[in-house]
Amino acid sequence: MSEIEFEGQVALVTGASRGIGAAIALALANRGLKVIGTATSEDGATKIGQTLSAFPGCSGKLLNVNDAAAAQALIDAIIKEHGGLQILVNNAGITRDNLALRMKDEEWDAVLDTNLKAVFRISRAVMRPMMKQRYGRIISITSVVGASGNAGQANYAAAKLGIIGLSKSIALDMARYNVRSNCVSPFAWSRLIGTIPTETEAEKARVAKIQQMGPEKIAPICAFLLSDAAKDVTGQIFAVRMNEIFLMSQSRPLRSIHRGEGWTPQTIAEHGMPALKSSFYKLDRSADIFNWDAI
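-> structure tokens emitted (295 positions)
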């Protein structure tokens, strides 16, 4: 099988100055894509440009993803310069960790605005040209924290779970126009998880293991999903941990109970909940779910 390439296609990768975004941008440029990577600072945009300088048509651009007008202007400029935009990777994100009972409105709003609302706005902006050209590929970076939750990250978990619902809805809305939408949930050391506590020996050991998971491990699944080799793959969630790739579940009924005469609070307590209890989820986190060493 020949190497997957993207000759002539154009990609927008948000949050591409470092970490996972930089690894994805470089991998796509290496496969012939004209990659426009964004950063929130001039230094970051310059860094992207330097990293991609060997690849014709690639560049780094300054963009605050929360600025809807600026995002639309950038997308319009890309289409005008290159004649189209085939690929979007929604990677930009932030954290503002705090316990839920102590979380300030501004901490909640900042994360939801950047990690979810901006993903919606930028996706919406690219979907119309993708619809007109009857071709488009979107990847949105989510997190297992979205499904499992995490102490001190109610805002981040809510945003990342929201991305999953958004991506699936885009996949359903745009399937008729040959536009695919998938999520990638990375396990990789980056500044977004640099706030994980390292106070105990167990926490230090956990962080040491995570630090071994480089962002370059995330790029291959993204390159595949954005290629025509994945023409039948849409509406899915893939997690990547070192050399492991997981197809993640989506919410479906686990078990049901039925009572012909209907339920009362009392019969639910006496019969309903006892029947369902064995299928309850524990108060676990991603580290409990993925409780073996990455391979």
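The radius of gyration is 21 Å.
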